[in-house]
Amino acid sequence: MKKLIRRIKRLLQRILKSFASDSQQTSPLINSRPLDTSIPSVSPRWESGLVLVCSQCANERLGSTASEDLENWLKSRLKFEGLWGEFRVVSSSCLGVCPKAGITVVIVSNGSGGNSPCLIVNPRSDYELLYSYIKQNKK
User: Fold this and answer.
1) Which of 42, 50, 59, 89 is deepest in the core (most CB within 10 A)?
2) How many angstroms separate the CA atoms of 90 and 73, rounded?
3) Positive or negative, the Cα torsion across 139, 126, 88, 43?
4) Is 32 left (phi over 0), alpha (psi -120 to 50) or beta?
5) CB–CB of 139/48 below 8 Å?
6) pLDDT, tens digit, for every residue of 70-123?
């Protein structure tokens, strides 16, 4: 019985010690540490531009592969002309434009000054026009 009482006493002392050290710190809901703002940044290979192709636009209206076909064509064309490292083409989920006809494409480039063009592309006829527009954004 004495051993049990000693164990309980030690356990209570540890608990009280833990509470005492916690009370000296601020509440866990309020972070007293300075915010670490040193988030690493990198220079991506696609410095001329990032082309976002909405994968949701064409699902119902144009067939489920229209945006995928456009994306693959752009990738192939950029690779063929040696611009793939400067530009990157990626599919995106809904961009919130939802055109009645066409696919939403956003071209993000370092030189756009925060004004990234949002284009509605007809996947049947605007491939070359879109490609020339992308090349105009080349650094």
Assistant:
1) 89
2) 12
3) positive
4) alpha
5) yes
6) 999 999 999 999 888 888 999 998 888 888 888 999 988 766 666 788 999 988
**How far apart, in Å, are the Cα atoms of 118 and each of 51, 68, 98, 114, 123?**
10, 18, 11, 12, 15
What single letter denotes the amino acid at residue 5? I
State the alpha helices, DSSP H only, in the chain: 2-24, 58-61, 66-80, 127-136
Say what percent of the chain tops pLDDT 90.
Answer: 22
Judged on CB neighbours under 10 Å (0-12, 13-18, 19+), 114 is exposed
Specify whether the CB–CB gap between 85 and 45 falls below 8 A. yes
Q: Residue 97 corresponds to which tokens in the numbers above?
A: 């434009």
HSE, side-chain direction, 13 A CA sphere, residue 50: 13
